[in-house]
């Protein structure tokens, strides 16, 4: 016991008496702060808030917790705290987000799905809108659809737009989406519009698949036209279709006119479209993706990053008059542009970018392009120190929103709710916005860390979340794990009270389970077999929890998602510590996972293999085979849980979405079939329309949580039979 290190991870003393455990309604009822931005004069805060996942909304466009088509823009007076919902989209199931102030602070541009005229509830596209501070009027700037970047997973239409004097993108929400527009001045916007008839990716990424299925049904019924999609490599490799493009457009909000400047490639898979406006605002450097690069036979992939796997072009566009974009001829050492950095100095004659000579090159070189002479020359590493000092008075875990002469504005998530606050001259904080106050009534369990030794004798840490109201004694345990994740970073992330959907572990603790998070520090060098190493890191954590008097050795389960699902199935074949297993979106067979296409690529009329990231993930990250199956066949065989399905003794619950972009439902189906063939206890659930995170629909979240809880209650109850 002397080695136990108690470390409170989450629990803050509530301001009111807690009265009930966490429920699915509490999780689905959370609001999310997507983005907040101060007006240039510092008087108004524009906060984008995602509404709770309740009835009357439109779902299935993205994981429910990050779907901006369920967002509203709130305007908050910084001095008085008076606030109002500017967009009020719930009645029409409309979303408004990416709120961006004009340089003079008189206008707020944003994206929205709000319907007008005969457009359906929920909207039929994403368009550019504006609020005028003087007239207090919200109106649509163009009926033309605008490019949008999808969130989570394999990003479609990635964007990176920066306005005059800035080399940082206009961010909608950090890490998930950048804006397709920037302000040029107080009255003009530069935006990436879509050709007529196109639909923004936010609405299209999933719907395209269903439209393709419907078209297939009709064509097959007619019997006159074959429905076929082709992928090709080598000499048969084709190029990107001409319809995959964006239109760089100047939108004048004062005159209500739009001017198309140039059509640029906008290949949707892996890469993106970057734009940097010169300091004088007269032109813009453009880096556009044209397609996915074909790998060389014996060459390795440089990184697990789509930006490193695509071909891009670099060019200039004149912002004063429409004309064809001027594409630049690049030297051999910069044959593959990677990143558009920005303009150097105030003159606006030179911009910088990063590039490399070929696909397998891991070293990046920096270049300066002089737009007057046309000379492109190598230059020294231009990376800058982007670390900024933390303002005085900012709470430890708070997120800074803005700071000026008036003070700072920040957001912080606590056990009592999510708050946006501003500093005041008297030194006290003023609360500008309160969200998720219902969490103050939720009772959560105590969390702490403890030390243990792996099977190799390596010192590791684990974390445990106890059930609410735990008074001591042994309780059933659900182990939540993900190979390569280690405590404390794994526990800080996984035990967050604000985790969405099925990933909120407080839901399972509320059912009376202790939640164990072990460290699983696998080496990913292709030399170590991850499958056989799993139990050496996880089993000792279970044993230690038994020694601490918390775990009942006969009632321990394991649950994981994605590579955590791989971990779950791997432990089912390699360990006998677990009395029940739940594997969510798992990988069971590395060989078939490696070659699986992304099902949501159907209907793009592009090479569907290009959308899948599985090849690079398998070779470089999970499980880091360091090569393809034909070269590393034994490694793939030895490290596939399916190869050892005959060793499973615990009941196994398998959960998968039929639109999973990582591993197709085959990964669960094959493992289930192996158990079925042996007459072993198993259950498989396949959710229609769901992706890798199984979070597209609130109904799915409710169902999955219920199924998991019932599974573990059934098989971790005293005297339960396997």
UniProtKB/TrEMBL annotation:
<dbReference type="InterPro" id="IPR029058">
    <property type="entry name" value="AB_hydrolase_fold"/>
</dbReference>
<dbReference type="GO" id="GO:0006508">
    <property type="term" value="P:proteolysis"/>
</dbReference>
<feature type="signal peptide">
    <location>
        <begin position="1"/>
        <end position="19"/>
    </location>
</feature>
<feature type="domain" description="Peptidase S9 prolyl oligopeptidase catalytic">
    <location>
        <begin position="537"/>
        <end position="717"/>
    </location>
</feature>
<dbReference type="Pfam" id="PF00326">
    <property type="entry name" value="Peptidase_S9"/>
</dbReference>
<dbReference type="Pfam" id="PF07676">
    <property type="entry name" value="PD40"/>
</dbReference>
<keyword id="KW-0645">Protease</keyword>
<dbReference type="GO" id="GO:0004252">
    <property type="term" value="F:serine-type endopeptidase activity"/>
</dbReference>
<keyword id="KW-0378">Hydrolase</keyword>
<dbReference type="InterPro" id="IPR011659">
    <property type="entry name" value="WD40"/>
</dbReference>
<keyword id="KW-0732">Signal</keyword>
<dbReference type="InterPro" id="IPR001375">
    <property type="entry name" value="Peptidase_S9_cat"/>
</dbReference>
<protein>
    <recommendedName>
        <fullName>Peptidase S9 prolyl oligopeptidase catalytic domain-containing protein</fullName>
    </recommendedName>
</protein>
<keyword id="KW-0720">Serine protease</keyword>
<dbReference type="InterPro" id="IPR011042">
    <property type="entry name" value="6-blade_b-propeller_TolB-like"/>
</dbReference>
């Amino acid at each position: 016991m002397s080695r136990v290190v108690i470390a409170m991870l989450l629990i803050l003393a509530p301001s009111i008496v807690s009265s009930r455990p966490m429920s699915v309604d509490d999780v689905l009822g959370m609001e999310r702060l997507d983005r907040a931005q101060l007006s240039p004069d510092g008087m108004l805060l524009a906060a984008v808030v995602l509404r709770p996942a309740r009835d009357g909304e439109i779902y299935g466009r993205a994981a429910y917790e990050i779907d901006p088509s369920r967002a509203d823009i709130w305007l908050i007076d910084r001095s008085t705290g008076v606030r109002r919902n500017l967009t009020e989209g719930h009645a029409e199931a409309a979303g408004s987000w990416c709120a961006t102030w004009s340089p003079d602070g008189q206008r707020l541009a944003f994206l929205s799905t709000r319907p007008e005229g005969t457009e359906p509830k929920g909207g039929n596209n994403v368009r550019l809108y504006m609020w005028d501070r003087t007239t207090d009027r919200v109106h649509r700037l163009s009926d033309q659809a605008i490019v949008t970047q999808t969130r989570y997973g394999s990003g479609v239409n990635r964007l990176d737009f920066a306005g005059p004097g800035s080399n940082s993108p206009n961010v909608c929400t950090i890490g998930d989406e950048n804006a397709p527009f920037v302000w040029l001045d107080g009255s003009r916007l530069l935006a990436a519009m879509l050709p007529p008839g196109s639909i923004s990716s936010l609405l299209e990424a999933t719907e395209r698949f269903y439209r393709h299925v419907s078209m297939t049904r009709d064509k097959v019924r007619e019997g006159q036209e074959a429905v076929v999609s082709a992928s090709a490599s080598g000499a048969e490799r084709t190029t990107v279709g001409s319809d995959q493009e964006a239109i760089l457009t100047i939108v004048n909000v004062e005159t209500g006119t739009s001017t198309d400047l140039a059509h640029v490639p906008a290949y949707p898979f892996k890469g993106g479209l970057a734009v940097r406006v010169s300091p004088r605002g007269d032109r813009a450097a453009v880096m556009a993706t044209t397609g996915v690069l074909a790998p060389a036979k014996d060459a390795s992939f440089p990184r697990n990053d789509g930006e490193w796997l695509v071909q891009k072009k670099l060019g200039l566009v004149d912002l004063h008059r429409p004309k064809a974009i001027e594409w630049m001829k690049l030297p051999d050492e910069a044959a593959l542009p990677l990143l558009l950095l920005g303009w150097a100095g105030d003159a606006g004659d030179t911009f910088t970018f990063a590039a490399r000579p070929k696909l397998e090159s891991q070293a990046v070189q920096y270049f300066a392009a002089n737009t007057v002479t046309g000379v492109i020359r190598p230059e020294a590493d231009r990376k800058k120190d982007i670390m900024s000092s933390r303002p005085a008075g900012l709470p430890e875990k708070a997120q800074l929103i803005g700071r000026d002469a008036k003070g700072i504005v920040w957001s912080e998530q606590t056990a009592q709710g999510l708050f946006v606050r501003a500093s005041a001259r008297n030194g006290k904080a003023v609360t500008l916005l309160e969200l998720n106050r219902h969490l103050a009534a939720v009772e959560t369990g105590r969390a702490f860390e403890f030390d243990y030794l792996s099977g190799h004798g390596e010192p590791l840490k684990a974390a445990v979340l106890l059930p609410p109201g735990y008074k001591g004694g042994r309780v059933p345990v659900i182990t939540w794990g993900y190979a390569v994740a280690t405590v404390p970073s794994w526990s800080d992330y996984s035990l967050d009270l604000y985790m969405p959907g099925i990933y909120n572990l407080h839901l399972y603790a509320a059912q009376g389970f202790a939640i164990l998070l072990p460290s699983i520090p696998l080496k990913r060098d292709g030399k170590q077999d991850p499958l056989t190493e799993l139990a050496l890191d996880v089993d000792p954590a279970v044993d230690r929890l038994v020694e601490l008097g918390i775990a009942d050795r006969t009632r321990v389960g394991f649950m994981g998602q994605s590579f955590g699902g791989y971990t779950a199935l791997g432990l089912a074949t390699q360990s006998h510590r677990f009395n029940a297993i739940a594997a969510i979106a798992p990988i069971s067979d590395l060989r078939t996972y490696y070659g699986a296409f992304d099902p949501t690529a159907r209907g793009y009329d592009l090479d569907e293999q290009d959308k899948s990231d599985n090849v690079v993930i398998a070779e470089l990250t999970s499980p880091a085979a360091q090569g393809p199956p034909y070269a590393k066949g034994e490694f793939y065989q030895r490290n596939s849980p399916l190869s050892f399905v005959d060793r499973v003794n615990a009941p196994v619950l398998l959960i998968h979405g039929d639109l999973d972009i990582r591993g197709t439902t085959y990964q669960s189906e094959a493992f289930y079939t192996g158990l079925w063939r042996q007459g072993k206890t198993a259950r498989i659930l396949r959710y229609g329309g769901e992706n890798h995170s199984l979070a597209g629909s609130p109904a799915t979240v409710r169902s999955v949580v219920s199924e998991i809880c019932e599974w573990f209650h059934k098989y971790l109850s005293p005297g339960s039979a396997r």
